[in-house]
């Protein structure tokens, strides 16, 4: 065995992450108890990220609809969408799709229509107060 291949050699030490770095890396990639995620966990996370990227433009368009209709900021539009989503037990993406559909003459679903006025009233109160 060559000296550079022995455990504890400079080469071996250079290839290892510094003390505590492995734990930090593990936390960053979603590991629990210092264990690296399984391939299955990484695939599931990848799928979630793909869905999020597909849905993001729809949510952004709905924010734009609210911003144009109510002269609110992007953050305020987001808060309105979240409020309606939480109180109507509807995913933000579905609330966003429903709002966008209204620009094409579609009616809002009843559960969204029921909670949108309350979200707008709450936004107005926070803006005026």
TrEMBL record:
Gene Ontology molecular function: RNA binding
Matching PROSITE patterns: ANTAR
Stretches assigned to the ANTAR domain: 39-100
Compositional bias segments (type: Basic and acidic residues): 9-27
SMART domains registered for this protein in UniProt: ANTAR
Annotated spans, Disordered: 1-39
Name of the protein in its database record: ANTAR domain-containing protein
Organism per entry: Streptomyces liliiviolaceus
Classification via Pfam families: ANTAR
């Amino acid at each position: 065995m060559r000296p550079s291949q022995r455990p504890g050699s400079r080469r071996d030490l250079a290839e290892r992450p510094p003390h505590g770095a492995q734990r930090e890396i593990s936390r960053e990639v979603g590991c629990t108890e210092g264990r690296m995620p399984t391939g299955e966990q990484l695939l599931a996370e990848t799928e979630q990220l793909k869905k999020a990227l597909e849905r993001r433009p729809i949510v952004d368009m709905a924010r734009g609809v609210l911003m144009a209709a109510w002269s609110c900021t992007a953050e305020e539009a987001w808060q309105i969408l979240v409020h309606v989503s939480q109180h109507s037990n509807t995913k933000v993406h579905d609330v966003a799709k429903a709002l966008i559909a209204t620009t094409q003459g579609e009616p809002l679903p009843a559960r969204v229509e029921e909670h949108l006025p309350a979200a707008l009233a709450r936004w107005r109160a926070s803006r005026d107060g």
